[in-house]
Specification:
Elements: E1 3-7, H1 12-23, E2 27-32, E3 57-61, H2 67-77, E4 81-84, H3 91-96, H4 98-118, E5 126-132, H5 155-174, E6 177-183, E7 186-187, H6 196-208, E8 215-217, E9 223-224, E10 227-228, H7 229-239, E11 248-250, E12 256-257, H8 258-267, E13 271-276, E14 283-289, E15 301-305, H9 323-329, H10 337-354
Parallel strand pairs: 1-2, 1-4, 2-3, 4-5, 5-6, 6-11, 7-10, 8-15
Antiparallel strand pairs: 9-12, 13-14, 14-15
Helix pairs in contact: 1-7, 2-4, 4-5, 6-8, 6-10
The structure holds NADPH dihydro-nicotinamide-adenine-dinucleotide phosphate and guanosine-5'-diphosphate-rhamnose.
């Protein structure tokens, strides 16, 4: 039985990847940091009683800022594959916590690579590093491929730049099977509530159900290449199954402005949105309604711009070129943006219908 260790197992990607690896027959170990409340909602359905003889899913307390802890977990679990998904992953928040972000996202990756060396596991353990399209930052060329130069634009992206290159360096210096997946934005119903797609689908659901009046967003012009996390974790696994370790871009090749995603999400509840005004004065209101089953009114102002959500330096345009992944890995996404958006809005409607809460309006992020 193959053994995998996933850092960040209770995050969006960790949950989908754990599910995939369990389906493939792996023993899955996960690193989870201690929190004052239990925050394993995304993986609760995978829980197995550790007292059972045939347990294939186990969590370990750990933190990317603690080398001794990571060394001990790797020694105890002896993984064939490590997926390093743990990170302070919010770009805007990284401007508030730059030093911590560098430590967890940058040096954290070094700690894992060193642990493999210290334990003499160079020939046994393969490692996947969760690299990101944020590395491209300020546009140098489009679409962005494995050969496009990097120009990071946030403390998060700079930390991930270190992690990218230290992964490449350990591959070249010590012959480690270490790979970067340069993944473009990927979303799902499990996406954190303060990333823009989920923030929008939650707000649309709450507004449609009459629990909230409007939402506040930042830069509506930003364009992202959005895919589904379920498709992207399959690519992570494929990347570690190849004969030679290499880096891959994972993307859909289609880019969409935030404003369009807002329209798409409202269309799921039968509302057509029109935007008027410019910059901080831009507003989105309901132009027409085709589904009268929701609490929506023609003319209702549903989107306002709050500069608090602007970033000191922004990444305006991301569009990836997944040709290498498609040809070498045989990777093909099953979802497109409309099907992703549909699933997210439906899921948020269901959540609100089950659990009527009204305090979401001013979620930060
Ligand atoms: P999430 O924010 O959903 O999950 C991040 C995970 O990392 C959580 O489990 C979190 O734990 C954990 N974590 C954070 N800091 C630490 C730490 N110091 N020690 C241990 N664990 C920690 O991210 P995603 O699942 O969306 O992303 C997975 C990875 O892929 C991240 O590294 C992200 O930067 C990267 N990435 C994501 C993309 C995306 O579009 N989703 C695109 C490209 C890269 P807790 O719940 O306690 O906070
Ligand atoms: P991103 O994702 O920064 O691309 O990082 P996010 O969803 O946070 O932002 C995408 C774009 O939307 C704009 N935006 C807003 N963003 C947020 N969060 N909240 C808002 O109100 C808002 N209004 C507009 C942003 O300015 C940005 O341009 C994600 C993370 O998962 C990273 O960890 C990962 O590496 C990259 O994707 C690829």
């Amino acid at each position: 039985m193959k053994i995998a260790l996933i850092t960040g197992i209770n995050g969006q990607d960790g949950a989908y990847l754990a599910e995939l690896l369990l389906e493939k027959g792996y023993m899955v170990h996960g690193v989870k940091r201690r929190s004052s409340l239990i925050n394993t909602d995304r993986i609760d359905h995978l829980y197995q009683d550790p007292h059972d003889a045939n347990v294939r899913f186990k969590l370990h307390y750990g933190d990317m800022t603690d080398s001794t802890n990571l060394i001990r977990i790797i020694q105890e679990t002896q993984p064939d594959e490590i997926y390093n998904l743990a990170a302070m992953s919010h770009v805007k928040v990284s401007f508030d916590t730059p030093e911590y972000t560098a430590n967890a996202d940058g040096i954290g990756t070094l700690r894992l690579l060193e642990a493999i060396r210290i334990l003499g596991l160079e020939k046994k353990t393969r490692i996947y590093q969760a690299s990101t399209s944020e590395l491209y930052g300020l546009v140098q060329e489009v679409p962005q491929s494995e050969k496009t130069p990097f120009y990071p634009r946030s403390p998060y992206a700079v930390a991930k730049l270190y992690a990218y290159w230290i992964t490449v360096n350990y591959r070249e210096a010590y012959n480690l099977y270490a790979c970067n997946g340069i993944l473009f934005n990927h979303e799902s119903p499990l996406r954190g509530e303060t990333f823009v797609t989920r923030k929008i689908t939650r707000a649309v659901a709450a507004i449609a159900l009459g629990l909230q009046q409007k939402m506040y967003l930042g830069n509506l012009d930003a364009r992202r290449d959005w895919g589904h996390a379920k498709d992207y974790v399959k690519a992570m696994w494929l990347i570690l199954q190849q004969e030679t370790p290499e880096d891959y871009v994972i993307a859909t090749g289609i880019t969409t402005p935030v404003r369009e995603f807002v329209k798409m999400a409202f269309a799921e509840v039968g509302a057509e949105i029109e935007f008027t005004g410019e910059g901080v004065d831009e507003k989105g209101f309901i132009k027409s309604i085709t589904n009268s089953g929701f609490s929506l009114k023609v003319g209702q102002e549903v989107v306002l711009v709050d500069p608090a959500y602007f970033r000191p330096t922004e990444v305006e345009l991301l569009i990836g070129d997944p040709t290498k992944a498609k040809t070498k890995l045989g990777w093909e996404p099953e979802y497109n943006l409309p099907s992703l958006c549909k699933e997210m809005v439906a899921s948020d409607l269901e959540i609100f219908r089950k659990d009527d809460k009204t305090q979401w309006e001013h979620l930060a992020g």
